[in-house]
Design brief:
This protein is mainly alpha-helical and 272 residues long. Helix content is 74%, strand content 0%. It contains 14 helices and no strands. The protein is globular, with a radius of gyration of 18 Å. The N and C termini lie far apart (37 Å).
């Protein structure tokens, strides 16, 4: 029991350190949803840190992501995972090093779904590292955003159904994830360009990416219409509202929302 409490405390701390967007809505969820969604987020963030890592070479990223994919499809033993990451440990953040711990705090009844989605994500990320994130068509963009964000929507839908039988449209859930990711792409466009990555299909302008984001955020609006459970609805509304406000901020030529704007947006939804 003591280990569980320590792990939960650590998971909460690492979650707060790694996510500005999701920490608040996760902290507002009721138990056992709070720890379940927190665990799922940390698992996906753990592999995301490998894909985005500035110091790891392409071969190392592909090897790690493929290995993690295979481990998640199996029993995922702590010793094997630590052995895998040992040569890279000095470069990896805590959220990645402790992937096994985040699996331990996930309820057994939904753990399989969390492992499955994270495994698919790891494999998809590996394939895009291999392609050097070169996106030529809208289909490419859809595939990439599915692996890095749409799967988050799918996994959340699995969690909602497990929690209280809430059923949601998986295609709309993917659109929800894609919409949030597209806003991140717009916000980080200059930063990505510096590392030689441009998430724009051939012939697309920044305006086209804005349209892509808006199209998927509309799907997100439709997605949450079917949700009746208040704690789940509030969770979904907060990142969506922040994404919409960020999109508006970017259209005005600003880099990001102010802390006050973030806080007021969250407060509006909490008090709604």
């Amino acid at each position: 029991m003591g280990i569980d409490k320590t792990l939960k405390k650590d998971a909460n701390r690492v979650l707060k350190e790694t996510s500005r967007t999701f920490y608040i809505p996760i902290s507002l969820l009721k138990k056992p949803l709070q720890m379940t969604v927190g665990s799922a987020y940390l698992c996906m963030r753990a592999i995301d840190e490998i894909e985005d890592h500035e110091e790891l070479d392409t071969e190392s990223k592909i090897y790690l992501l493929h290995s993690i994919r295979d481990m998640l499809n199996d029993t995922f033993e702590r010793e094997s995972y630590q052995e895998l990451i040992e040569p890279y440990k000095s470069k990896l953040p805590e959220v990645t090093i402790r992937l096994h711990d985040w699996l331990l705090v996930c309820p057994d009844e939904i753990l399989g779904k969390v492992k499955e989605s994270t495994s698919i994500m790891a494999g998809g990320m590996a394939s895009w590292v291999e392609k050097n994130w070169v996106i030529k068509t809208k289909e490419d963009l859809d595939e990439y955003t599915y692996y890095v964000a749409g799967l988050v929507g799918v996994m959340l839908s699995d969690i909602w159904e497990w929690y209280d039988g809430t059923k949601t449209d998986r295609d709309l859930a993917i659109g929800y994830g894609r919409g949030l990711q597209a806003v991140n792409m717009l916000r980080n466009q200059d930063e990505d360009a510096e590392r030689g990555v441009e998430f724009l299909p051939d012939g697309w302008s920044r305006a086209d990416l804005f349209s892509y984001a808006e199209e998927n955020l509309k799907k997100a609006d439709t997605y949450i219409e079917s949700i009746q459970t208040k704690t789940i609805l509030r969770f979904c509304k907060i990142p969506l509202a922040l994404a919409k406000r960020t999109l508006g901020t970017l259209k005005l030529g600003k880099e990001k929302m102010t802390r006050n704007e973030v806080e007021s947006t969250v407060e509006e939804i909490i008090n709604d």
